[in-house]
Write a structure and sequence with these properties.
Length: 249
């Protein structure tokens, strides 16, 4: 039996477990299990794969996407550039265990965003500055889209929410929510931006997928903007994870 799993804390309702188990059943993929491993202290991570050689890979989520890198032997190019990992392969050779980290968030985000981009989407505001924002900024750099990171404190971003005005919103027609604001069950929350300046030229992208339409997206849609939630990004990165693991079995 090959084991795969998700580490993070807390893990609550996980998209990953449901997605992979349904995929395995639907595609008749046998002898592979995917489970949740809530680890509060990342120092406990090595016990999992050291004590059970069935483990071939992991997904990594909040709050361990950077801390887990301490335990890795290799990084893919994008994981190194982003400085965050959400996918790990485990290879055992001649008694040596080799862990390699990848970042498939970037792949998922880029491939779900690109079809929606229009020629005027040349500047973005990235709302939030966590691990997900790092993958988003990596992709924006690749696509030659300039951006500013918006945060509650200037220590963590380029500008603060309270400095957003009509001119900034008008200039930056791509608005990307990388913060957890609006995630179920606190669905009434949303980033504190001046939505009255959003127009039909704007594209609002929310990395959140639950609820399907966040308050951030609803407010954008009310102003005529195009909107996209994070579900397709999640599916694309999940499939990329599977491709990486499968090539390593």
């Amino acid at each position: 039996m090959i084991k795969l799993g998700l580490i993070g804390f807390p893990l609550g309702h996980s998209f990953s477990k449901k997605y992979y188990l349904e995929k395995f059943e639907k595609e008749n993929i046998e002898n592979i299990d995917y489970d949740l491993y809530p680890i509060e202290n990342i120092a406990d991570f090595p016990k999992l794969y050291q004590e059970d050689e069935c483990f071939k890979g992991f997904n990594v989520t909040i709050p361990h996407k950077q801390a887990v890198m301490t335990f890795l032997d290799e990084l893919s190019e994008e994981a190194e550039a982003i400085n965050a990992v959400n996918c790990i392969t485990i290879e055992r050779k001649n008694g040596t265990t080799i862990l390699k980290g990848y970042n498939t968030d970037a792949f998922g985000f880029q491939n779900s965003l690109e079809p929606l981009l229009r020629p005027h989407h040349t500047k973005a505001l990235v709302l939030g500055n966590g691990g997900a924002a790092k993958a988003v900024c990596y992709v924006l750099n690749k696509l030659d889209i300039s951006y500013k990171i918006v945060s509650r404190s200037l220590n963590n971003g380029d500008i603060t929410y309270d400095t957003l005005d009509e001119q900034l919103i008008k200039e930056h027609t791509l608005l990307i929510n990388c913060s957890p604001l609006g995630t179920f069950p606190k669905i009434e929350e949303c980033p504190a931006i001046p939505y009255e300046f959003v127009t039909d030229k704007h594209l609002l992208y929310d990395l959140i997928y639950n609820p399907e339409e966040t308050t951030f997206l609803r407010k954008g849609k009310e102003r005529g903007a195009s909107t996209k939630n994070g579900y397709e990004m999640l599916v694309l990165q999940a499939e990329k994870n599977w491709e990486i693991w499968r090539n390593n079995f």
